[in-house]
Amino acid sequence: MNIKPLADRVVLKMVEAEETTKSGIILAGSAKEKPQVAEVVAVGPGGNVEGKEVTMYVKTGDKVLTSKYSGTEVKVDGEEYTIVRQSDILAIVE
Fold it and tell me: What is the pLDDT of residues 35-86, one digit of tens each?
């Protein structure tokens, strides 16, 4: 099943959090922070959203930074995705 976002929505797949620290300490599941880096899976068409013209700046395959608790989490075919508005994306990671 494919997810096709509408308007200014973007579908993200979160990048897995590191399981060890730089010094080699293995983190327990509860000690891991929610990842903030995600890969863009699908992008809506943009257009007129709430009376304003929205141009989409992200594209499929981009790595982006998001707010910690932004978006809506969904599960499709056993995979977890987060759907956010483009305005919830803080930056593109290069």
Answer: 689 999 999 999 998 899 999 999 999 999 998 889 999 999 999 999 999 9
CB atoms within 10 A of CB 85: 16
Could you give the count of Cα atoms lying within 13 Å of 48 in the half-sphere of its Cβ? Answer: 1
- Tell if the pTM clears 0.85, that is, is over it: no
Rounded Cα distance between 88 and 57, Å, is 12
Place of tokens 């981009």: 62
Helices (H), the chain: none
Q: CA-to-CA distance for 55 and 62, rounded, in angstroms?
A: 16
Nearest-angstrom CA–CA distance, 30 and 43:
32
Single-letter amino acid, residue 92: I
Owner of token pair 């060890």: 20
Distance CA(66)–CA(69), nearest Å, equals 8
